[in-house]
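Morning. Coffee machine broken again, so started the prediction first thing and wrote up yesterday's gels while waiting. Chain of 481 residues, entered below exactly as on the submission form.
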Amino acid sequence: MNTSKRTEEQVLQTASPGNRFYRTVWRWHFYAGLFVIPFMVVLAATGIIYLFKPQLDAAMYNNLMFVQPDLATLPYVEQIQSVESAYSAAVITQVTPPAAANRSSEVLLTTADERNLMVFVNPYSGEILGDRDEDNNLQAIARKIHGELMIGKLGDYLVELAACWGLVLLITGLYLWWPRQKFAVLGTFIPRLWSQNKRIFWRDLHAVPGFYGVLLIGFLILTGLPWTGFWGDTFAQVWGQFPAQMWDDIPQSAVLTGSLNQRGQVVPWAVEQLPMPQSSPSGQTDHSGHHSDSTPAQNGLTSGTPVSLDAVIALAQAEGAPPGFNVTLPEGETGVFTISAFPPDPTQEVTLHVDQYSGAVLADVRWQDYGLVPKAVEMGTAIHMGKYFGFANQLLMLAAALIVLLLAITGAVMWWQRRPQGSGLIGAPAMPAYVQNWRIPLAIVAVLGLVFPLVGLSLVIVLLLDYIVLNRIPALRRILG
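Came back before lunch.
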């Protein structure tokens, strides 16, 4: 052990209880950062890519997405026939009518070799403009990395764990930033970037932007968690339910509406727990449970006959679905058409399940049907994705992502500067000899464990390793410390 290391240990032995607690928090902050930094870099980078999806798509697929407006569009049945002729072995699963007069129709299909292709059709001529692999394009890959690191459920859990540990970083980081001696603006609210002391320079570049960005980063984490696999699923099952009496007389399947999101964002989070209703082949479905005041006949649909795609799209427009809505086609004899709109303004969201034979609206769910928590989740998601208030929203979330990258980089530099020279592996802040008043840290662990089970479990494991294993094995402590 070198002299500087001995001096640090001696200081810890005589330090005040407050200083010992400070160093304990610092140690937690260090371990959290060690785990979180790689994930935060990945999440911030992929988040920035997906944040500017509208602009990137328009630039990358301009020849597919945009057309010259003409006098009249072809019926959707004819547009679908063009796609079926060009992709004879494929199964069409979803259709998105043009969002504007200069936009193409989009037809999602699954090929014989199980590729998901988005086919772009000129709605005025029926010409196939081309296709895009929905599983292997820039946005799809960025989304998969952002959500599950492209390794499935394990990646989903790792991202969730890293996000929860990010909250630990924010809490402990705010505690470490808080001035404890004489208050000074410099180093607290203004980073001393002119300092010749490298530690002060990097510390301020880490701590001060972290303070300004704590609310934005916390917002990003909390609004992303509802989409995670463990905490998010549990959260949805508790808060995403709808009163059963809303559709008492409608046949329901065991499949949830959220199953449609397996092919990307199709329906809002708020309706993922809604049971999918079933179509009645006899055409006698009682549609008394839906919210719409219109009937199939009023929308050009004839009860008891198979419903055409054009009729369903006309129904969606009559029911006020905003431009950009999509129509998922029925699967099997009891499947339904699902009309879903996921616009920038969540108050305009619409989800309709339509009987494929009678055209009856079996379920009609809108903003006013959401509970308080689903409304908060939908609004948070819209802001998180940079959609709610346009380009300014994108810039705000870009700033948050850049602060995350800055914190990750400066944190790594600070660790590199203070890493042990000649002994030790990770250079964690020295463990205090003892810490009085364990009520506060235990309360933090308890609260985090109750709200976020994965982070609570991992905190317990880290504490046991840190204060039992490392404390009892000096050789291991020397290697790691």
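The beta strands are 91-96, 105-110, 116-121, 128-133, 252-256, 275-277, 326-328, 336-341, 350-355, 361-366. Going to sketch it on the whiteboard this afternoon.
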